[in-house]
Structure formats: C-alpha cells, structure tokens
Amino acid sequence: MSLPSQPAVPHPEKDYLGLHLKELPYFRALVRAVEARFYRDFELPSPTLDVGCGDGHFATVAFDQKITVGLDPWEAPLREAAQRGAYQLLLQADGALIPFPDAYFASAFSNSVLEHIPHVEAVLVELGRVLKPGALFLFCVPNHQFLDGLSVAHFLDRLGLHALARLYRRFFNRISRHIHCDPPAVWEKRLEKAGFEMLDWWHYFPPSAMHVVEWGHYFGLPALLVKKLSGRWLLVSQEWNIAWLRRWLNRYYLPDPRSKDGVYTFYVARKR
User: Fold this and answer.
1) If pLDDT is split at 50, 70 and 90, which confidence band does 95 have?
2) With contact defined as beta carbons under 8 Å apart, do 265 and 141 qualify?
C-alpha cells in the first residue's frame, strides 16, 4: 500500500480551545485543547498512524496536514471522520489487528484512547510491529490520580462516608469507560514488552481542572440531548455563543497545564 508522504505538523499558534469549544461539550473541549498544545513540540514523520481516531475532530484541530491513516473499530465515528477529511485513509479495524506490513509507519499517536481498551497490551505489541525502528509514539491517558481528583468523592471522604466515596469513584470510572488508570511505571512495563523505549512523560490537568470535567458530565447532559437530536453538540457555534465559556475556561487552559498532581499523563515513546 502506497500513500502520499507528508509529515503531521501541529500549528504553533492555533486557538485550540476556541476550535474545540465550537464542536464539543465544554469539559471535553478543555481537556482536548490542553492535549493539542502538547503536540506542538513534535513533528510526526509520515506515514503516521492515529490509533483510535474516532470522529477525527481532534486531528483536524491539532494538525495542519492530513494524517496518513486513521484506525478505529467503530463504523459510526469513522463515517463522521470521513466527512471531516482529516485523514488520507480511514480503516475500521481492531488495534490488535492492524492491516499493514511490518515497519510501515514512521510515527503514531493515540489521544485518550488506550485507557478504554481491555486488550491494550496486544494493541501495543501490534503497534510495535507496524512501526519503524526509531519511530515516535505519542499518547495520553488518565493516570492513578484520576479517581482521587474527583470532588464528590473527596467531599464524601471528608464526611467519613468512605464506602459511598468508593462507590462514586467506581460509578464515575464506569461512565468514563475507563479500564486502565495506571501510573507511569505500569505503562513503561507495557511499552518495554511491546518493544518501545519510554523517552519522557508528564502529568497534566490538576484536580481543580479535573473538577470542571467531573461536573461537566452532569451539566453537559443537555448537550448530549442536542447531539442525539441534531448530530451536533452545539446548535449555535458562533463566537458570541462560546465567548463566555472561553473566558471562564482560560484560567485552566492558559497556564502551564503540567502538574505533579495532574490526573492525566502524556507519554513520549520510541520504537526500538
């Protein structure tokens, strides 16, 4: 298979927050905007693989060029990704069965996807197979501090209602569809077994920002209804309708989001 060669280069001055706010619920927009900023420091040589590309919205915001291949197991988001035109090629496939030859891709990324995959070790091994030696692999996932950062659980713990706090944490993890919320040491072992070397990592999104995400799951329910009825998260995406949200969220978006107590972790790995 031969595809056009073009590196995935992030734009250094994009309004990531504003672009995400126009199409996503505010709490998801905040997280994705922060993550998009991290990619500015990296150039991903092509061919590039996006593992778990979903509807393609993140790729359209984070990168100026089309990504070579977007891979996802679900048909509906792939149809939406096709409409966005963010990829040269879209494939419906499991990440543990990537239909490409050995050492085909020169780079890969996976943005907030691996935490949802039960067989994540098999996905990493398969990714290692299709990446060239020396290829960069960037990904981000919630970490072991995610559940401790939940405000409702913290409040219940302060009242001594520890059993209820544990129930709430399990509930929130379930609605977030998280299977893995692990520390860097666990991910490093997984990467090593799959033939990767971990080059760097950092935590981001402190608990204060996490509370925005937590409560956004509840306050954002009307947006879910709008999405189901219209196919869009926002009926009106003009600047005047999101300006107030931008002003409020800038306090979490503009400062350096890296934080020792951050509830997410960004990883930089390289195929050996």
Assistant:
1) very high
2) yes
Taking the model in full, what pTM does it have?
Answer: 0.90
The answer to whether residues 204 and 90 belong to one domain is yes
* Residue 101 · residue 2 · CB < 8 Å: no
Instruction: End-to-end CA distance of the chain: give it in Å, rounded.
Output: 24
CA 65 to chain centroid, in Å, comes to 19
Across 238-247, b (16+ Cβ under 10 Å) vs e yields: eeeebeeebe
Q: What is the maximal distance between C-alpha atoms in the chain?
A: 61
β-sheet bridge partners, residue 13: none
> For residue 204, how far is the Cα from the chain centroid?
13
pLDDT at 2: 47
The burial of 159, by beta-carbon neighbours within 10 Å (0-12 exposed, 13-18 middle, 19 or more buried), is given as exposed
* DSSP conformation letters of 169-195: HHHHHHHTT-S----HHHHHHHHHHTT
Q: Are 156 and 198 found together in one domain?
A: no
pLDDT tens, residue by residue, 122-134: 999 999 999 999 9
For 46-91, what is each residue's pLDDT tens digit? 999 999 999 999 999 999 999 999 999 999 999 999 999 999 999 9
CA distance 252 to 208: 8
Structural domain containing residue 157: 147-179
Q: How far apart are CA 200 and CA 89, in angstroms?
A: 29
- Nearest CA to 102 among 131, 123, 136, 125? 131
